[in-house]
Amino acid sequence: MEAMQTQVNQTPLTQLPIAAVSSLLGIPVPTIRSWERRYGFPAPARTQGQHRRYAVDEIDQLRKVRDEITRGHSAREAVDLVRGDGGRPRSELFDRFLQAAMRLDPAELRETLTEGAETIGIEQTIRDVALPSMREMGSRWKAGVCDTAHEHLATEAVRVWLARQSAMAPPTFRPFPLVLACGPKDLHTIGLEAFGVVLARRGWSLRTLGALTPVDSLVAAVRAAEARAAIVTSQRSVSRRAAVEAIEAVDALPGVSAFYAGAGFGPTAARKDVPGTYLGGDVVAAAAVLEGELLGEVG
Predict the structure, then answer these.
(1) Beta partners for 206?
(2) Among 209, 212, 96, residue whose Cα is nearest residue 154
């Protein structure tokens, strides 16, 4: 085992299948899959046959999780500890972004997101810096603590950064496209755009329709793209009913799976009798849920 570990550490381009990683680290294959399904961690690349391939840094992350559990932490605590490891802590990047937004400093906003991508990774920067910062700026705006200019500048910085990450995504290789849309009465698109980046990085071809998507337009897009799934988001309780109508319309299409997310569906009661699959509030874990539903657990 030690010889194999040395070989992996000395070969930066090595990508191992899940069985080899399991053997190397002494972690059962079902446990590794469970961590990905529950926590979106790690998020390895997949072959066109949907088999996981773990890079050296992902193997090291799994090793650290294993060691933290050995020290007495729960799996969730271990994952959170490892996600915060390396470069600068997530909380510092989050604080820096907010401070830059309050100073109306676009250069620092860009620098913080860029540094996050380099130290904790793109997906973790989305989940732990960009999206929490957007929620916090929205709360500050509602409370009158910041001006519209602060909120808009931060939003634009995140949107431009997300667009850049999407443009740099690898070529698509998944078997069918996905359609992403906000509910018919929903204006907020950042969460949808962020989820699109996570999916694009995993090889999905996307049709992102954006804000205020009418039900008929959503259905037409799904049919035209021959998509097998659509994701609908709603961020407010007052717009949820219209979003549910869109979800129901997608769910009624033969061979098409409906997924939904957003703060509007956060309370358990808000999801009562809603068809399809709820993706939760974590974009990385949501991608694992979606792929588990659409592709099944393969290798």
Answers:
(1) 178
(2) 96
Q: Pick the closest to residue 186 from 142, 116, 244 (CA basis).
A: 244
The beta strands (E) that lie in 129-284 are given as: 178-182, 206-210, 229-233, 257-261, 277-278
Whose tokens are 């996570």? That residue is 198
- Residue 3: what pLDDT? 38
Q: What is the pTM of this model?
A: 0.72
Q: At 162, which amino acid appears?
A: L
In this structure, are residues 262 and 191 in contact, taking their beta carbons and an 8 Å threshold?
Answer: yes
Q: Is the dihedral of CA 70, 71, 76, 82 positive or negative?
A: negative
SS3 45: strand
Residues in the chain, overall count: 299
Report the distance separating Cα 175 and Cα 219, nearest Å.
Answer: 20
Tell me the per-residue pLDDT of 231-269, one tens digit each, with 9 for 90 and over. Answer: 999 999 999 999 999 999 999 999 999 999 999 998 899
Stated as kind and residue range, the H or E segment containing 289 is helix 283-295
